[in-house]
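ok so I'm stuck.
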Amino acid sequence: MKRLLKHTLWALMSLFVTGIIIAGLIIIYFETSLPNVTSLNDRQMQVPLRIYTIDGKLMAEYGEKRRTPVDINQVPPLLINAILATEDQRYYEHPGVDPMGLMRAAIELITTGTKSQGGSTITMQVARNFFLTRKKTYSRKIREILLAIKIDSEFSKQKVLELYLNKIYLGNRAYGVAAAAQVYYGKKLNQLTIAEMAMLAGLPQAPSTANPLANPIAAKDRRDHVLFRMYDKHLITKAQYETAINSPIISKYHGEPVVVRAPYIAEMVRDAMVDHYGDKAYTDGFNVYTTVSSKDQIAANNALRNALIAYDQRHGYRGPTANWAATPSVNWVKKLESIPTINALEPAVVTRVNTQSAEAILVNKKTITIPWSGMVWAKKRTWGPAPKTASDILKFGDLIRVQHLRDNTWGLSQVPNVQGALVALNPKDGAILALVGGFDYVRSSFNRAIQAERQPGSNFKPFIYAAALDKGYTLATLINDAPIVIDQPTTNTYWRPQNDTHKFYGPTRLRVALAESRNLVSIRLLRDIGIDYAVDYAARFGFNPNDLPHTLSLALGSATVTPLEMATGYAVFANGGYQVSPYLINHISNSNGKIIYQANPRLACDNCSNLNDTQDHYPIAPEAQATRVIPAQVAYLITSAMQSVIKQGTGRGALVLKRNDLAGKTGTSNDEKDGWFSGFNNDVVTTVWVGFDQPQSLHEYGAHAALPMWIDFMRVVLKDKPESSMLQPPGIVTAKIDPKTGLLAYPGEQNAMFEIFRQGTTPKQISQSDSDDNSSDSSSGGLTEQWGQPLF
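replied:
not stuck anymore, here's the structure
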């Protein structure tokens, strides 16, 4: 027996030593394959791409993981203690690994045969989340233990906690406690209640299946357990415990608060970031601050929406989308859930029709009343006689669109078929202040502001007139507004262009011709200055000469351009003659707030070194001056002529703004397929466009279809801002002329008027008292055609 005991003891000792040796070899084996934990100092957490306005309002967020990294000092101590009480009670006592916890896990494994408890400490979870997978294997657990010990020896307890609180997954794409507070409660960490902190503290155990959105009952049970642990550890008082445990579950999904809706801009930025940074754009926590002003962008959104709805309603009600009268009404709300709201136009089903009103139900089960005033626009329909009562417009079960109106009533509406775009630039540097590419991005992501190439019509005329002024013409030059017939041999037809009034007005000064958008004058002007010269001159404004037709139709805007290209071209007039490049990103910062990119655009200024940082968002350098492409005097003259467009011409609708610093030009393409208006003062240039994606007639001119959008936008942008007109450059003189002949007024002429000229181009002749006898104008810049004689 003694001998047996002796051999048994030696065997056990040998087994123990062998076990130690084997354990040591295993540790050495795993040690050699462990990553360097000091890399946690430089580890980049996956943080989504966020896009902001220049004034810091969020416009969009891109990325699979939602995370808002915070410093440990920004996390409420009570939340930290709640997590420790639940996840790792002995956190400050163990060296990264809790032997008692591992023992409990081992006993559980032996008694049940399952690995339901891992005995993981917070440090071990940090090791797993940063370096390992979540697959439950013995080798992973060994690596996790060894890494935790190394992490605990390398980093302070506070640093490890900070890594954990920012890395831990808490369900619904929320990584870290700050992101979870936003997702579940729409709050910052310092705004959470005790009950809400307990809810977050209980999420790490089962974030996907026991969060308050996926399983409110299980989440409440877990929260209440955490609250009991907090009370048991004397972290909260009994009164606080009772209040918190009786708090209802009020969680709901809160997206990151997008303050400014600008999906077309956001997509432009996202595309640029991915093009430059690749997939890292979605994970490296870039914060992109655009040049867009939140106030201007909101104004642009509203202006485009209201203009397109107004146009749509002017052209009649198309009827309901469907009629669900045959479907049981109890199923209507369920069916409404599958129909998206489009730009605040909500789907609804008519439940009752009265004589002068109707009732409808929304997706939220709310019943609304549509008064006669909210549907009276539909008296004009695309079918049948004009309705006199609500029952002539709506039927029980009609699936319709409604909108909440400013007077707190509801109105019948419909999603417009027409589309539009708006672009606003700072003419001094090209910064995009606002941009909208269509009625609704979800319905159509096609960005018409930068992708739609459409004919600008008369919106292009100022570039032809500028070319003429630079060649010696003046705003007083007379061009004959008379019939033109052009032979087109390729089609064996004749081109007979006309004014929109279908009238002819005879000799017309260039100022009047531009203000009234006289087509025949523009064609003759282009013919006289030369098409090739005009095309080359238009290139100074940023247009590609290869995209411009080398025909006389160029004078009527037969080229195809985008709204952004038009706004960029008009910026040359607005800034006094400089070409600026439009840009959208002001600066980019990384996840630590360090600026890694700062825009430094070229500035439209005569002496850029006189500017200072208080005027712009970037440092000023003399070499930052933009290239002058047209003389300042030409820019001033064209601006003056386009002020006449608003004061006496086709843009008279803009007079409602009651400002004297506005200039602009309407535009309508052939067959009224496109409506435009481009206008500016010295601080902002805005181009708007209205048309159908599949070109068809608007049956409206640009002054009616597009100008109201421009007016609504500029009304907001320029509100409370002083007038900002271009300063008169040197080399501009004023002379009194006879408005009929464009010559110098004769002494005592009652109808004489003042006109401005480039120095050296004023008329040399004095008009005769009987101006009707004049038959030629020596100041016409070389035009030799006799008035009334057809050019072809």
